[in-house]
Amino acid sequence: MSAEKILSNTQAKRLIPPSELASLVTALPDKAKAIEALLGQVDLAKRSKKKGWAKGLARELDKLQFYSHSWISQNVHELPATKKLVWKEDPTGTSKDIRLAIDPSIQVIRSDCGTKPHTSSESIALLDEFDMEVEVESGDERKLLASPPCSPLKPKPVSPVKPIVRASSPRKSWAEAMELEVPLTLVATAAPPSSETVTITQSAAQRSYASVVTSGPSDSQKPNVVERLLKLSQEKASASSDQPKGQNKDPKSRRNPSGQNTRRSHYSGGERLDRRRPAPTTGDHGSAPKEKHSRVVPASVPKTSRCPVPGCCGNFTQKHAMEAHLPGVFWLCVSGESVTNRRIGALKLVVRWLLGFSSTLLNLVVYLESVGVPVSHETCSSDLQKAAHEFCEALRVPVPEDLSLKKRGNAVTVLLQWRCLLTLVSMLERHQEDSLKSMFELSPEEKELILSVPKAFDSHCHLDRTGRDMALSIPSLAAVCAGKARGDEFEVKVTGAATICCDPDNYPSDSLIQSWVDEGVVVVCGIHPKTDVTDKRLERLAKILENPNVAGLGEVGVDHTPQPDTWSNQILGLERVLNLLKPEHILVLHARSMLDVGDEAILSLMYQLASHPKVQREQLIHLHCFSGTKVVMDRWIEQFPNTYFGFTSMVRLFKPSNPDQIAAVRDIQPSRMLLETDAPYFAPQGYKRSTPALIGTAAACVAQLTHRDWRDVLQQTNANAERLYLDRKAPASD
C-alpha cells in the first residue's frame, strides 16, 4: 500500500491497524510522504478519540525505530520515559569480584599506570566538551601534538554520530521538533583559524552540514590546538558514516550543557538554516556591510507545508502567517500612504535586528537570497501590484516589471510578499517578533477591510441531495453552507448558487423553489443520464419546467462510466428530454468518460446535440465538470459559441502526462470559465461532504494549475456565473 492509499484511507475516515501502518510508513522510501501519511492517521485518531490505537501505534513505531523516542512521544502518543545511560568514572572504593570471590573487606585501589598528562586527541576533545581553557607555552607545543609514550586512561566516550552541539534554539524549529537524525559533516572556511570556539550544527545540503564560527582574539599558540580539533572532528565525522545513528536530545530541552541560552534555528523554503546570519555577499543590488561572522552553508530537507517559525506547528499558508506572525500592515488588500510608510518602517526595523544599523533594504534582499528565497510560481495578484507600486514610489525607485519570487535577482518589492516576510520573521527572537507585530498593527478602520471574505457564486451544486445527506428538513443555501466550519484558508461568502435538481422522483416543491430563489439560488431541473427516462418522469419534468422560477434544463447528457450496453439507452433518453428544451433555457450538460480525459464522451454529446432540432447554435450552454482537452474545447466552441465551461476541485488530479487537458484550463478564455463544487460530491480532504461554502477550494485548485491568485480566479468566475444565470447572456468577448 502506497502513501496515497494511506491518505485515501484517512480521507475516508478509516484507521489502519497500528502494526500494519507502522510497517507501511517505515518501508516508504520518501520520509516526507511517510510523515504526512502517518500524521493524517494520527489526527484522525485524535478526532475519533482512539487513544488505544494511538498508543499501540506509538509502541510499534518505537520498535521499528521510525523516528526517535521523543518525536514519537510528541507527535503520536506519549511513550514511557527511557532510562539514560550515565557514564561513570572508574570506582576507587571497595569492590567485590564475584567471579574470584574476593573478600569485600579488602580495599582495592585502582590507578592509572601512566604518570604523564593526557595529551591525546581524545583528551583534547574532552577539553572542548567541558569548556576548559588550555594554556600552551611555546616549549610545550611539540609535546602537546606528539603522542604520549604510554597509553593514558581511556576518557569518557564521545558519540561519533552526534558531536557536541553548543548552539541550538530556545524556540525549537520544526526540524528539531521532528528530530531529523542526519549525519553531520564539518565544513571549514577558507579564513585562517582565529578562534577558540568550534560549533558543529546539523545540516541539510546533502542531508548534513556544519558551520565553524570564529570569534574573539587568540594567543599565538592556540591556532594549533584549533587545527588539532578540526582534524579530530573531520576524522570522527568520516568514521561515523558507517555507524548507526545516535539518539537526539530531548526536544523540550532549551539549554545546552553549559547552561547558556541556546540560539534559534529556522527553515526557509524547505531548508533548515543556522540562526547566525552569514557574511553578506555582493549581489545585484550592491555590496552589503562586512560582518565578523563566517558564512553558513544552507541545507535542503524534504519539502514541508509546516510554518518555518521555530516552535510553531501551523501550516505554511498566508492566512496563518498573517494571523500568527506578521504585522497587520502587510495585509496587501489595505493600501494608502500611511500603510506604505509603516511597512517601510517595519522592514527597516527588521534590517536593524538582522544586519545592523548601517544596512539597507537592498542588503536585506541580498541576505534573504543568501539563505534561500521561498520560490513560488503563483502570478502576482492585483493587490500585490498596487502595493508594490506604492512601495516603490515611497522609496523613489523604479517599479519592477516582474514581481515573482526568484532565487536570485529579486527587486526590493520581494519584501512585501508573505513568504519572504515569514522567512525573515522566523530568524528573529521571540520578543522581537512580538514587538514587530504589536508596533505595526492596523487601525480598527483598516481591519474592517481584511475581515471581509470574498463573495462567491457556486455555478453547479445539488442542494436537494446535500440536504438529504445532512438530514435537513429544509435544504436552504444558508443551512447547507452552515455545515462547514469557518476559518478555512479559502473562506468565502456564498451569495448565490445554481442548484441542479436531476432526480425526477424527488423534484422540489414550488414553495421550496421559491425559497431558493429568495436566497439568490437559480434552479435548473432535468434527468441525470444514469436515470432511466420513462413517460412518467418526462411528465414530471415537463410540469416543473413550466415553473417560471426554473431557469434551465439539466443536468442531461451522457455518462460512460456504466457498462457500454447502457449507452444506447442514454442516447435515446437524451433525445426525448431535449424535446422539452426552449430557447430561453440554460442547457446544463453532463459528459463523463470512462477515461481520465473525457474527449470521447464530450465529442459524442456534441454530435448528438448538433443533430437535434431543438438545440440551437446560439443556445446558452453550461458544460459541467469539463475534463477534455483544449482541442476538443475549441471544437465545441465552433459548434456552440455561447458555451461556458465548469471546473471543480478535481482539476488537481489532471496529470502532467496529459498536457492538452491542463492546457484547456490554462488557455481558456477567462470569460468562459465557471467554478463548481458539485456538492455534495468532490469533498476536499478533511471534509465528509462538499458544500457551496467550499467553492474557494475549487478556486485555489484552478489558481494553482494556472499560476494565478485564487481571489482573482474567484472574482472572474463570479462575474461569469452571474452573467450566465442572472443576466442570461453569452460569454463576454475578451
Helices and strands in order, then pairings?
Layout: H1 3-11, H2 18-27, H3 31-47, H4 51-64, H5 69-75, H6 121-129, H7 141-145, H8 174-178, H9 222-239, E1 266-268, E2 271-273, H10 318-324, H11 337-355, H12 361-371, H13 382-395, H14 418-425, H15 430-439, H16 444-451, E3 455-461, H17 463-469, H18 477-481, E4 493-501, H19 510-518, E5 521-525, H20 535-545, E6 550-559, H21 567-578, E7 586-592, H22 599-610, E8 621-624, H23 630-639, E9 643-647, H24 659-666, E10 673-675, H25 695-706, H26 710-725
Helix pairs in contact: 1-3, 2-3, 2-4, 6-9, 11-13, 25-26
Structure overview:
By secondary structure, this protein is α/β, with parallel strands linked by helices. The protein has 26 helices and ten strands. Helix content is 37%, strand content 8%. It starts with a helix and ends in a 9-residue tail after the last helix. It has helices at residues 3-11, 18-27, 31-47, 51-64, 69-75, 121-129, 141-145, 174-178, 222-239, 318-324, 337-355, 361-371, 382-395, 418-425, 430-439, 444-451, 463-469, 477-481, 510-518, 535-545, 567-578, 599-610, 630-639, 659-666, 695-706, 710-725, and strands at residues 266-268, 271-273, 455-461, 493-501, 521-525, 550-559, 586-592, 621-624, 643-647, 673-675. The strands form two sheets. The chain has an eight-stranded parallel sheet. A two-stranded antiparallel sheet has the order 1-2. Helix 6 packs across helix 9 (222-239) and helix 25 (695-706) packs across helix 26 (710-725). Among the domains are: 3-75; 318-451, no CATH class; 455-725, Alpha-Beta Barrel (TIM Barrel). It is globular, with a radius of gyration of 33 Å.
